Amino acid sequence: MNRIKLIYPRICTFNAVRANLYRIQMRSVSNGSKPEDSGAEIKPNEEWVQRRRITWQSRKRGILESDLLLSSFVSEELVNLNKGELDEFEQLINQSNDWDLFYWSSGATVPPDSVKENNAFKKLVQFVERNNNKIERMPDL
């Protein structure tokens, strides 16, 4: 088991935390009491929720080229985007065709004016240019 922990420390740590949470929940249920409600509501428009949603959406596009491009961009640049740019980026990836977005950002085709004016798209193009149109592997989660 120690060898596995050395090889996969993040997975083992995560599973240990998850197991402890499960034990705590089961203990409270077996006592007949209900788990405490923190009272905090998760709102879909909160910034941290939006950042997680963008991370997932940029990684699971369906086209490998778009997955590589967008997930690499998000892993490096998402923390630098402000709320307005987050909204623009989310709108861009949700409304655009994956191939169009890939060709626009790589410079293979000219994007429409509405996309050119998008600040998040400008940062995506700068990211692609900075990496010389090379992205070799999917970033870690």
From TrEMBL:
<dbReference type="InterPro" id="IPR036714">
    <property type="entry name" value="SDH_sf"/>
</dbReference>
<dbReference type="GO" id="GO:0006099">
    <property type="term" value="P:tricarboxylic acid cycle"/>
</dbReference>
<dbReference type="GO" id="GO:0034553">
    <property type="term" value="P:mitochondrial respiratory chain complex II assembly"/>
</dbReference>
<dbReference type="GO" id="GO:0005759">
    <property type="term" value="C:mitochondrial matrix"/>
</dbReference>
<dbReference type="Pfam" id="PF03937">
    <property type="entry name" value="Sdh5"/>
</dbReference>
<protein>
    <recommendedName>
        <fullName>SDH assembly factor 2</fullName>
    </recommendedName>
</protein>
<dbReference type="GO" id="GO:0006121">
    <property type="term" value="P:mitochondrial electron transport, succinate to ubiquinone"/>
</dbReference>
<keyword id="KW-0496">Mitochondrion</keyword>
<dbReference type="InterPro" id="IPR005631">
    <property type="entry name" value="SDH"/>
</dbReference>
<keyword id="KW-0143">Chaperone</keyword>
